[in-house]
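It would be a great kindness if you could assist me with a short task in structural biology. I am sending you one protein, given as its amino acid sequence and as whole-number tokens for its backbone shapes. I would ask you to consider whether the tokens describe a fold that such a sequence might reasonably adopt. The full record is reproduced below for your convenience.
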Amino acid sequence: MKKLLLLLLLSVSSLAHAGAHAFYDFSSATYLVQNNRHEVRPIASITKLFTAITVLNSGVDLDEKIKVNGRSGGRVPQGALMTRMDLMRATLISSDNRAAETLANYHPGGFNQFIKDANDYLDSNSLYNTKIVDSTGLLPGNQSTASDLIEFLSLIKHQPVIRKIASERNAALNAPRGKKTITINVHNTNPEIFVYDNILISKTGFTNPAGRCVLMLVEKKKELYGVVVLGQPDVRKRSLLVKELLLIEPEPIPNPIINSTIEFEYSNPL
């Protein structure tokens, strides 16, 4: 078992680019693999998970229709009326930048209050190496560490809306615009979600400064694990690294040796 684990770790090391990654066992609260996990790096569209939790924490009505309004690119059409829930799905499934920007613009108090609330959430949860400067992740000022992202994953791993949305492979969204209703078919940006059936939360990210990134919550043998990969040069290398991480099994906990004392009763012969 130890020889297999060593081979896997060497394989992970050889695949890792000059980025950061971590594989975390939530049941034992231990890192099974870690590399540069305290290094602050841009996180690109992983930012959108922070956008989602900020929207949810605000208590707004997810079924309320709001007008798509953003300068960023995206498949959701400008000016269409869409529910916040569908905009959240576009944000987390297909990483739609315009949807994420619209959610921030319609945050109670507006965009600036959204940024304040997002960073207040970080501070209140001791995610001191994480900073959010926009809702999309396009700006390199959206930063975190692998350690902070694992801690963030522990905070949201049982959040029902995020669990429901961020594990969907595909979705059909309705976008009424004038007298017409457009149906937008969105597909998950994480190729691993089409390979594995045990991914419960998934969000990819890419910008030139950030490289290829992914944050995932996975379930193996009824236990939860966190996967963070930051700064890989391309999707193929990111996928290979994820595959190697998911192959790693925690060391079994040995059964404790119980020292028992057997008492004998002796009787003196007459």
